[in-house]
Amino acid sequence: MHEFGIAQRIVDVAVRRAEAAGAPRITDVLVELGDESGVAAESLELYWAQASRSTPAEGARLSVRTAQDPWACRVVAIDVAEEPEAP
Question: What whole-number distance in Å separates Cα of residue 38 and Cα of residue 68?
Fold first, then answer.
């Protein structure tokens, strides 16, 4: 269940980076997880939609790849939309 808190933290990091870039919406987030990080990728993906709800990351795709560093748990990249979605 700690993956929900990690998902929230990833959303916070991604939103901060998007805001710093002046981007209104996040479309994709890439995360690296090490084999010894203690984070289950499937659980993180499961909680992603809930953690990102009502944020600029809502609807963004979360991609998880295995890191070389066995202890890693980090946001590697975010992709953003330059224009807000039309209503």
Answer: 15
DSSP code of 46?
H
Q: Rounded to whole angstroms, how far apart are CA atoms 17 and 43?
A: 24
CA dist., res. 82 & res. 37, Å (int): 33
CATH architecture of 2-81: 2-Layer Sandwich (3.30)
Instruction: Tell me the whole-structure pTM to 2 decimals.
Output: 0.88
| Contact indicator for 6, 67 with CB cutoff of 8 Å | no
Per-chain mean pLDDT for the chain: 92
Distances 15 to 22, 29, 35, 63, 70 between C-alpha atoms, Å = 10, 10, 26, 16, 26
